[in-house]
Design brief:
By secondary structure, the protein is α/β, with parallel strands linked by helices. It has helices at about 10-20, 50-60, 85-95, 115-120, 135-150, 165, 190-195, 230-255, and strands at about 1-5, 25-30, 35-45, 75-80, 100-110, 125, 150-155, 175-180, 200-210, 220-225, 260, 265-269.
């Protein structure tokens, strides 16, 4: 839950759960400097989830956002273009039940990665952008998504900018991996930008997609040290490992309902 802070919120929640004979497994909370309260409580036990939520709603002060999420795998669709490294990482994790999600399908504007996806028995939708406006292309994608009704979209190196009209269909439910330590080097060719600037670290950023290019709320980041001996190509090669690990970490947090969005920031509990 999240909302304005009040005294006794933790007690009120735990008391309701106690009355419903629930066992609390873990709990974490945070109060922002502006007085916004965030709490994630994981619990288990017999009982009616709706009854628990109704009691929490009746007990807690008005103005709090309450969400009762059963622990289950999220339904997701992956978006890719031509690069295989992030897609391959997610497919392998999925094959070994390490993703906390069900990959319903893979969507791409090229058919380059179809042979890889077919090895995992996952539907692959090749939706070309050629000879289409951006809006026409996205309309074709949305028609495909209607078949699956995914909870999240994952841009695993999908090298096209989504329009605001598309993003509004999945607010705060599109996760992107950007091959740079944002907010530095947004847009295209960040490794070339980093090389030209002579940076000593490179990184990767996983973030939610919003209307501003590469400026959505950041979920996870990591960096690697580099020096003057590396070319832009060397940096890009080294960066791929970082991209894979950062995207996997971010998705684990999102799929386990650990991420709150507050303005253009995330709170991770």
């Amino acid at each position: 839950m999240d909302g304005p802070d009040h005294k006794g919120l933790i007690y009120q929640v735990t008391h309701v759960l106690y009355n419903h004979n629930q066992n609390i497994i873990s709990q974490d909370e945070y109060v922002s400097p502006s007085g916004q309260f965030f709490m994630r409580t994981e619990f288990e036990g017999e009982g009616n989830p709706k009854s628990i939520l109704d009691d929490l709603t009746a007990t807690l002060p008005a103005g709090l956002n309450l969400r009762l999420n059963p622990k289950k795998k999220k339904d997701v669709i992956l978006f890719v273009t031509k690069e295989h490294h992030c897609l391959g990482e997610l497919l392998i994790r999925y094959a070994f039940d390490e993703l906390d999600a069900t990959i319903q399908a893979v969507v791409s504007n090229y058919n380059t990665l179809q042979p890889l996806v077919s090895k995992f028995g996952i539907p692959f939708h090749y939706i070309s952008h050629e000879h289409k406006t951006r809006e026409e292309h996205e309309e074709a994608i949305l028609r495909t998504l209607e078949i699956y009704q995914p909870e999240y979209l994952v841009l695993a190196k999908y090298m096209r900018v989504l329009t605001s009209d598309f993003v509004k269909h999945y607010p705060n439910r599109i996760v992107n991996i950007h091959h740079s330590f944002l907010p530095a080097f947004i847009g295209a060719n960040p490794y070339r930008q980093a090389y030209d600037r002579g940076v000593k670290i490179i990184g990767a950023t996983a973030h939610f997609v919003n209307d501003n290019l590469d400026e959505g709320p950041i979920i996870a980041q990591d960096v690697k040290e580099v020096d003057h001996r590396l070319t832009a190509f060397d940096m890009a090669t080294l960066g791929k490992d970082t991209e894979k690990s950062v995207l996997s970490k971010a998705l684990k947090l999102v799929f386990n309902d650990r991420v709150f969005i507050h303005g253009n920031r995330t709170i991770i509990l």
